[in-house]
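Subject: Interface between my chains keeps coming out wrong

I've been trying for a while to get a sensible model of this assembly. When I model each chain on its own everything looks fine, but I need the whole thing in one frame so I can look at the contacts. Pasting all components below, labels as-is. Any help appreciated, I'm running out of ideas.
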Amino acid sequence: MIPELGQLTLILALALAIVQTVLPIAGAQLRNYSWMALARPTAQLQFIFLAIAFALLTWSFIQHDFSVAYVANNSNSMLPLMYRISAVWGAHEGSLLLWALILSGWTLAVSIFSQRLPLYFVARVIGVMGSVSIGFLLFMLLTSNPFDRLLPVPMDGADLNPLLQDPGLIIHPPMLYMGYVGFSVAFGFAIAALLGGNLDSAWARWSRPWTIMAWVFLTVGIALGSWWAYYELGWGGWWFWDPVENASFMPWLIGTALIHSLAATEKRDVFKNWTVLLAICAFALSLLGTFLVRSGVLTSVHAFATDPTRGVFILALLGVYIGGSLLLYAWRAPSTLKGGTFSLFSRETFLLFNSVFMVVSMLTILLGTLYPLVMEAMNMGKLSVGAPYFNAVFVPLMLPVIVLIGIGAIVRWRNDNWQRISKPLAILLGVSAVTGVITGLLLLESDIFISILGLVAAFWIILTSLSAVRERLKNRQNKWLALANIPRSFYGMTLAHIGFAVMIIGITITSTHSVDVHERMAPGDSVSFANYEFTLDSLRSVPGPNYKATEAVVNVSRDGKLVSTLRTQKRLYTVRNMPMTEAGIDAGLTRDIYVSLGEPLDGDAWSLRLYHKPFVRWIWLGALFMAAGGILAATDRRYRLRIKNKATQVDDNSVTAK
Amino acid sequence: MWRYSFPLLFFVGLVVLFIFGLQNDPSKVPSPLIDKPAPPFALDTLHDENKKITHDTLKGQVTLLNVWASWCAACRVEHPLLVRVAREDGIAIYGLNYKDERPNALQWLKQLGDPYVDSAFDQQGDVGIDYGVYGVPETFVIDKQGYIRYKHIGPVEQEDLDNIIMPMVRQLENAS
Amino acid sequence: MKTVIAFLLLFNLGTLSAADVPIRFNDIEKDNLYDSLLEEIRCLVCQNQSLADSNAELAQDLRRQIIEMIDAGKTENDIKAFLVERYGDFVLYRPPLQENTWLLWAGPFVFLVIGIVVAIIIIRRQANNSATQEPNND
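Reply #2:
Try treating it as a single job with all components included. I did that and got this:
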C-alpha cells in the first residue's frame, strides 16, 4: 500500500513538473499572465508530493518493509535506525529520489524568494528547473523506481554497504546534492536570460546569491567527502583523484569561475556571454558527474551498481539539457548587447584570468579522467591515469592562481596603474617570503623547498587580503565605523580567500610531513616516531549490532605522559561478509594521530598502521572558511533589502527584450 | 558566429565518446602479449609430477591454452564446452592449472571430464603472472610457431567459439 | 635476516595478506622503493585499489615477486617494465611518457597557453574600443 502510494506521488509530481515547465515558459513567450502565474504554485505543489514520496520511502526503511526491492537490497533487520534512514539515499534509486526532492526544494526556494523579480523571468527560471525535474522523474519511473516491489518477500535484507554505515553518509551526499542541484538555479537563470534576451547586470545581481549558495554547499559536500574518506577508509588519505571525486571537483572549479565572473558582470556589465556559458557548464558538469557515477563507463570506487541502460538514459538527459542549452547559447549569445570596457591593468582582467585558470584546471582534470576512455575508443591501448598524473599537473596550475588572488584583491576596477600598487605588493611579497622562509626553517624538516613555497603562498594570500581591508580604512577618521560599513560581501571575499590559504597550509604540511608506519605489534609492544610513543595495550573481541569486531587499544604518549588512548577496530559485517576497518583518531588543530588495525599475524600479534599527520585538519578548516565566506557574500545587504529605485522595479506585465 | 558554436561541438564530441564508453567494459584488461611469443615456462604436469611441460610443447600445432582451477566457479560453466570442442573439433587444448591443489584439481577433472592434452601445474601462480593472468578462466590461442594470437577473458561461450576462436584457429591451421 | 623472517612469515601462513605484513629490507632505500612502488601500481583484481592496499591473491603474488626483484637489485624502471610487459600500461597509475600519451602530458600546458592568448586578445580588443575613463574604486 505504502510503496504504491509512493509511486503515485511520483507520478503526480511528474504531471506537475510537466505543467510547471510547459505553461510558464510558453506564458513568458506569449505574455500570458495566467500561465506564468502557474509557475510558483505548481513548483510548490510538486515539492509537497516529492516530500511525501521521500517520507514514504523512509517509512518503508524504518518499518523494515522488505517487500520493497530497494529496501531489501539496502537494509537489514539488524541495521541501526539512523542508518536505516540514511540508507534511503545510500544506493542508486533512493539517491535519485533525493536528487529530485532537492531540485524541487531549490525550485520552492526560488518560488518564494523571488518576489522582486519580474514574473516573466521567474516563470522561465521555474520552467527550466521544472524541465530538469521531468527528466529525473522520468528516469526514476522508467528505469530506477525506488518503490518497485520484490516478490516473494525475502526474510531479511542484504544490509547497507558497510562503508556507508557511518555518520559521514548521513550528511555528505545531501550536501553534495544541494550543491550539484543548486547549480540548476544558476542554469535556470542563464537559460531565462538567453530566452528573454535580457542579459545585463541586473540579471547578474539576481543570480549571484543563488549561485554562491550552491557553491557553498558543494564546497561543504566535497570537504565532507574528503574528511569522510580520511577517517573511514583507514589509510589516512584525503584525496585520490578518483573519477567520481574529479566529477565533483570540476563543477566546483567552474562554480568558482562563475561566482567571480558574476561579480564582474554585476559591477561592470562585462563578460555577459561568458558568465552565461559558465553557468551552463557548471550544471553540465553536475549532470556529467551523475552520468559517470551511474553508467559504468569508468572504473571507480564510488560507482553505484552500474547498468548500461541507465547510462543511456542519463546520456540522453545530458544531450537534451546541455545540447539544448548550448544550441540556445549559440543562437542567442551573438545578440547580447556590448557591455563595459576596461584597460589591461584592471580588476576585470584579473577576474578574466581567474576564469582562464579555473577552466584550464577543469579541462585538465577532464582530460585526465576521460583519457583512458578516449584511448580505448580509438583502439590505442588501455592505460591508467591516476593520482601521480593529477598531482603533477594540477599543483603547478595553482601557483599562478595564488599570485593572482593577491593582486586581484587590491587592483581597482576599469583602470588602474601598476605604479600605484607595485611597491605595496613588493613589500607584501617580501614579508610573505621572509615569514614563510623563517617559519619553514624553524618548524619544518622535510621537502623544505616545497613546504616553504606552500607557506609563502599562503602568507601572500593572507597578507594581501588583510591589506585590502586596510586600504578601505585609509583616510577614515573612525576606523571602527569604517570597518562596520564595509559591505558584508567584501568580508565574505576576504574570509573565503583566507580559507583557501588555510587549506594550502594544511595540504602543504600534511603532504610533506606525514609519517606512515606499518608495524607488527603484539600486546605490550611499542613503536616510536614523530616524538610520540605508541604502545599496543590490549586486543579484545567486541560485538556490534550487525558486525563482529576485534578492537585494539593503543596508548599514545609523549615524553612519558599519556596523550590519548585510541581504539581501532577490524569489523566483519556478517550479512555481506565484508571486512571494514575503523580507525582510531586523536584529532588536533596542529596534528592528527591515527591508528588503524590491519590483519592478524602469528600468535597474538597484528599488523598496525600508525600515522602522524600534522595540520591535516587545516584542509577542511580552510574549506569551512571558504564556505563561511560564501555565506557572508550571499547574504549581503543589497540582496536582501527591497530596492526602492523605480528604474529597477519592473512590473509583471513588462515587455521582454527580444 | 562560429565561436559561439564551439561549446556545442565540444559537447557533441563528448557524447560520441560516451556512447562508445557505454558499450565498453572498463574492467577488461587487454593483453600486451598478442602477436608475441608465448612466454617461456617449465612446469610439472598436473597428472605426473615427474613429467615436464614447457612452452615448446605448445609448438608445432595450433593450440588453446586454458587457465583453470578447481576453485573457480566460472570454469565449471565453460568446461563442458571445452570437453566437447576437444572431442569433436580436434583442437589441442592445454590446461594451465592455476594456484590449485593437486588432489582437488585431479578430482575436478575426473568429475567434469578432461579436455586437455596435458595440464601444467602452476601452484605459485608465477607462470600465470608471466602470461598476464588476472582472473580465471582465461584462454589463449597460440599458433604453430608458439605465438599468442588471441586472449579470451572470462568463460568461453558458444558465441565466442563460433565467431572468433574457431575461425581464427582454422585460419592459423591453414597458414604455413 | 629481516627479509628471511618476512619470507618465513609469508610462506608459513598460507592466506596471510602480505599487504599487512610489514616488509623490511636491510636497506632503507629498498624499503622506500618498495613503499612508493606499491602506491603506483594498480591491483588488477580489485581495480580500485593499489598494490599497497589490496588483499587479493594476485596482489599478494605480485608483491612477492616485487620483493624478490627488489632484493635482486632491480630498479624501479625494471620492475615497472616487468609489469607492463605482462599487463600493459593499465597497471601503472602514472601514465608513461610515450607516443600515445604525449597529448595527455602536453594537454594542460597547451590549454593554458591557448587560454592566456585568448584572454589577452579579448582584453586588447575591447580596451581599444574604449575612451580613457576615470579610475574607479569599488
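Reply #3:
Confirming on my end. Chain B touches chain C through 17 residues (CB under 8 Å).
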